[in-house]
Specification:
Helix 11 packs parallel to helix 13 (472-481). The longest helix has 18 residues, at 5-22. 54% of the residues are buried. The protein folds into 3 domains: 5-109 and 504-518, no CATH class; 118-188, 2-Layer Sandwich (Alpha-Beta Plaits), CATH 3.30.70.80; 192-481, 3-Layer(aba) Sandwich (Rossmann fold). It contains 13 helices and 24 strands. The strands form 5 sheets. Strands 1, 2, 3, 4, 5, 6, 7 and 24 form an 8-stranded mixed beta sheet that branches. A 7-stranded parallel beta sheet has the order 14-15-13-17-19-20-21, with helices on both faces. It has a 4-stranded antiparallel beta sheet with strand order 9-10-8-11. The chain is 24% helix and 24% strand.
C-alpha cells in the first residue's frame, strides 16, 4: 500500500516530537495487567512493556510483530481506538492507565474485547477436552453459519444475525475464538426470574377514564408461562404461545411467576392490571425452578419480534456481576428495539451499586427498578452504573407486596415482591401509551416515560431511581400531545465503584511490550 507524502510527513513529525519529549528520560519498563469489566483482579493478559517516548497526554509505544500476533489471539485489537503511528508503533493516552504500584498498571476493557469471556473460561477449567459445551458465538461481520459447522453443531441462530449458539467440544473452543470472523465466545449463561394497590400509585386508573386500556396492543411476556384458567385471562386474551422448555402446544405455568407478571401487566378481573385491554403473547423460556439460559431468552426475544409484538416484557436477569451491555442477550435486545419493539426489562435484585443485571444493562431497553407503596426504593434493587459507566436504571415502578394472579387457582391473588413485579407495571403503561398514540417509536416511549416520571433521588437521572417513578397519566398525555421530548440529563456520577470511566479504555496498553503471558 502506498503512503502519501503528507501522511509520511505527519508520522515523521510525531516521532520527532516524541523523541524530543523523551530525550534525557530514557525508556521506561512497566508491567500491565489487562482485566475486563466486572472481573477486577483477574488478569486476561499480563504484559511486560517498554515506553520509549511520551508527551503531556500520551505514551509512544513500539510493539514487535510477534507480540502483536500473540495478543490478537486473545483480544479484538481493532476495537481499540489506538493511534497507529507506524506498523509497529502506537500512540496511547496516559489516562487509560491506573497505577497500582510503581511501574505497575491495570487496564480495564469492555467484555467484548476479550475473545473468550470469563464465564466460558471458568466453565472450561474442569472440563475434559472431549466434553461438549454449549457456547454462544458472536460474529464480527454478520452471520457465518458455515464457519460454525466446522467446529460443532448449531443449536440456534439469532434472528438478528449477530450470533448463534453451538454445541462444541471443549478442545475446539480456543480455535474457534481465534477465527477472524468471531467477535467473542461466551457460556450459555443462566438467568433467573426477579421475584404490590399499585395501579392507583402510578395513576393508571386515570388513564382508563380517558378511554385507553391498552386495547389493540400486544405484550409479549418471556417468562415461566401463564395459567389460562385464571379469571384474569378470559378467552381470547392469550393470542400466541410458545414453549421451548417442555414443548407444550397449550399454555401452562408450572412455576407461577409468569402468571403473576401477566396479571400485573394486563389482568382483566378486579383488581385489574395496568392495561386490561391489551392482548398477551406468552413465551415460556423459564423452567419450573425459575431458571433459564441466554439462548432460551434470546429465542423469546426473536419470537416476539417476528410474531408482531409491540412490547416485550422480561422480568428476568442475571444474578451476578457488573455488566457493560456487550453480552449476546443485551445485543439481541438492542436489535429488537431497532426493529420497533419496546423492550421493558427488570434491573435485577442485586441490592447494591454496580449490579445491573443482563439484559437490563442493554442501552436501548427500558430498565425498571422497584419501590414500595410509600414510594420508598426497595432495598433489593440493583443500582447503577453499568460497568461502562452508563446511568441505569431508567425508571421505577411498584414492586413490593404486589397482589396479582395466583397460578393454579380460579381467581385468587397472591403477593410477590421484586423488580419482576415493577417491570410489567411499566409494560402496561407502554401499552396504554401505544393505545392512545399508535406509532410511537421505542425511543419516544422511553423519553416520554423519563420526561414525565416523578423525580425522587438526585435531581436529574441518577443511579438508583433513574428518572424517577413512572406516571401513567402524565405519560399518556405527553405521548398524545408532544412525544418528542428529551428527559432530564444524568446528574449523579460513578465514584469508582465499578472501575468505570477513566479506566474503560486502558486496554490500549495491551499493545505495549516485549513479553506476553496469556492466562
Amino acid at each position: 500500500m502506498r503512503i502519501s507524502r503528507k501522511v509520511l510527513f505527519l508520522a515523521t513529525l510525531l516521532l520527532l516530537l516524541f523523541s524530543f519529549a523523551a530525550a534525557g528520560q530514557g525508556s521506561r519498563k512497566i508491567t500491565l495487567h489487562v482485566q475486563t469489566m466486572g472481573y477486577k483482579g483477574r488478569d486476561l493478559l499480563v504484559v511486560q512493556a517498554e515506553i520509549t517516548g511520551e508527551d503531556h497526554d500520551s505514551f509512544l509505544v513500539t510493539i514487535s510483530r510477534d507480540t502483536l500476533c500473540k495478543i490478537e489471539k486473545e483480544i479484538n485489537i481493532e476495537r481499540l481506538p489506538v493511534v497507529r503511528v507506524s506498523e509497529t508503533t502506537v500512540k496511547v493516552p496516559k489516562d487509560y492507565l491506573v497505577e497500582i504500584s510503581p511501574s505497575e498498571f491495570v487496564a480495564t476493557v469492555p467484555n467484548d474485547v476479550a475473545r473468550i469471556r470469563w464465564n466460558l473460561r471458568d466453565r472450561m477449567i474442569n472440563t475434559s477436552p472431549d466434553e461438549k459445551l454449549r457456547v454462544i458465538v458472536m460474529f464480527k461481520n454478520g452471520k457465518n453459519v458455515s464457519l460454525l459447522r466446522k467446529y460443532g453443531t448449531i443449536v440456534y441462530e439469532f434472528a438478528s444475525g449477530l450470533g448463534a449458539t453451538v454445541d462444541i467440544p471443549a478442545s475446539r473452543v480456543n480455535l474457534l475464538s481465534e477465527d477472524r470472523a468471531v467477535l467473542f465466545l461466551e457460556d450459555d449463561f443462566d438467568v433467573q426470574v426477579m421475584l404490590s394497590q399499585s395501579v392507583p400509585l402510578i395513576n393508571a386508573d386515570d388513564v382508563w377514564n380517558m378511554g385507553y386500556d391498552g386495547s389493540g396492543v400486544k405484550i409479549c411476556l418471556i417468562d415461566t408461562g401463564i395459567d389460562p384458567n385464571h379469571c384474569d385471562f378470559p378467552s381470547g386474551k392469550i393470542i400466541a404461545w410458545r414453549d421451548v422448555v417442555n414443548s407444550s402446544t397449550t399454555p401452562y405455568d408450572d412455576h407461577g411467576h409468569g402468571t403473576h407478571v401477566a396479571s400485573i401487566a394486563a389482568g382483566e378481573t378486579s383488581p385489574k392490571g395496568v392495561a386490561p385491554g391489551a392482548s398477551l403473547m406468552c413465551f415460556k423460556a423459564v423452567n419450573s425452578s425459575g431458571s433459564s439460559t441466554a439462548t432460551q431468552v434470546i429465542q423469546g426475544v426473536d419470537w416476539g419480534v417476528y410474531n408482531g409484538a409491540d412490547i416485550e416484557s422480561l422480568s428476568i436477569a442475571t444474578s451476578t456481576g457488573c455488566n457493560d451491555g456487550t453480552s449476546s442477550m443485551s445485543q439481541e435486545c438492542n436489535w429488537a428495539v431497532d426493529q420497533g419493539v419496546v423492550l421493558v426489562v427488570a434491573v435485577g435484585n442485586g441490592g447494591n451499586v454496580c449490579t445491573i443485571g443482563i439484559p437490563g444493562d442493554a442501552e436501548k431497553v427500558i430498565t425498571v427498578s422497584a419501590c414500595d407503596n410509600s414510594k420508598n426504593l426497595a432495598s433489593f434493587c440493583s443500582r447503577g452504573p453499568t460497568c461502562d459507566d452508563r446511568a441505569k436504571p431508567d425508571v421505577v415502578a411498584p414492586g413490593v407486596s404486589v397482589y396479582a394472579a395466583d397460578a393454579g387457582t380460579s381467581c385468587s391473588n397472591v403477593a410477590m415482591s421484586g423488580t419482576s413485579m415493577s417491570t410489567p407495571h411499566v409494560s402496561g403503561i407502554v401499552a396504554l401509551m401505544l393505545d392512545a398514540r399508535p406509532g410511537l417509536t421505542p425511543l419516544q416511549v422511553k423519553n416520554v416515560l423519563g420526561f414525565t416520571a416523578t423525580d425522587m433521588g438526585t435531581e436529574g437521572k441518577d443511579l438508583s431511581w433513574g428518572w424517577g417513578i413512572v406516571d401513567a397519566y402524565n405519560a399518556v398525555n405527553q405521548a398524545l400531545y408532544n412525544p418528542n421530548v428529551t428527559p432530564p440529563a444524568r446528574t449523579e456520577w460513578c465514584a469508582g465503584c465499578c472501575g468505570c470511566l477513566g479506566t474503560v479504555l486502558i486496554v490500549f496498553m495491551v499493545l505495549v511490550g516485549s513479553a506476553v503471558t496469556l492466562r
